[in-house]
Write a structure and sequence with these properties.
It is a single chain. The protein is an alpha/beta fold and about 220 residues long. The chain has a domain of about 110 residues: 3-Layer(aba) Sandwich (Rossmann fold). Helix content is about 35%, strand content about 25%. The protein is built from seven helices and ten strands. α3 packs parallel to α5. It starts with a strand and ends with a strand.
């Protein structure tokens, strides 16, 4: 699903965020990327989502060499991804239903399909019954679950999460990771960037550790 071939990401003002990284995450695997702040975790996700392009090497996702995807085709490529952010990025003036439905509406799904998929996604995260609530009336954990529902509603091939538990307490953090595990169990590939190594170790999944832009440990790569 994901391959990094000798990938280096160099910023003119800040040196190398990634240095000669080789990585393979096969389809259907769930893996964590860990490391200290500035180790390169978020940079890897930005390269996968084509928010940035690597300075050297190749990033291949789902068989697509990202260096060959033209800028005008990036939105089409991103339709195959689901992304969860630390700060939720919900639209406060819209209801839970409308927030979750956004990827489907953008892709041109019919109303009946949108309703069915949104309800299924909300059921997955335990928020059925709150479709008409606006995010401001939800707790932080519930807002994060809305973000997860929005990320998986279009059934992406790959789910990415960048520090999704950074603003949550330990119990909510475990619940959030369990939701990613449920998506993985139904066949989705999941890649989570987190600084919480203890939380990652508590789950039976691969852990990729970065330091100064390099992979220094890779535990459970064959699971």
């Amino acid at each position: 699903m994901i391959r990094f071939h000798d990938v280096t990401m160099r910023y003119p003002e800040g040196g190398d965020a990634l240095r000669a990284v080789d990585l393979h995450v096969p389809p259907g695997q769930m893996a964590f990327i860990t490391g200290h702040s500035g180790a390169g975790k978020s940079t890897m996700l930005r390269l996968i989502t084509l928010m940035e392009r690597c300075s050297r090497g190749q990033v291949v996702v789902g068989g697509h060499n990202l260096s060959r995807i033209r800028t005008r085709h990036v939105p089409l490529y991103r339709r195959h991804l689901g992304v969860v952010f630390q700060d939720h990025r919900l639209l406060p003036e819209h209801t839970v239903f409308d927030n979750v439905a956004l990827p489907l509406v953008a892709a041109g799904y019919r109303h009946g399909q949108v309703r069915r998929r949104v309800r299924a996604a909300l059921d997955l995260v335990g928020l059925l019954g709150k479709e008409r609530v606006r995010p401001v009336f939800l707790s932080g954990g519930e807002q994060q679950r809305v973000g997860i529902a929005r990320a998986v509603v279009h059934r992406p091939l790959l789910l990415l999460a960048d520090e999704p538990t950074g603003n949550l307490d330990p119990d909510l953090s475990r619940d959030t990771m369990a939701l990613f595990g449920r998506f993985n169990q139904i066949g989705g590939t999941v890649l989570v960037a987190t600084h919480d190594l203890a939380l990652a170790r508590a789950m039976p999944h691969r852990i990729i550790t970065l330091s100064e832009g390099m992979i220094v440990d890779d535990t459970g790569a064959d699971t």
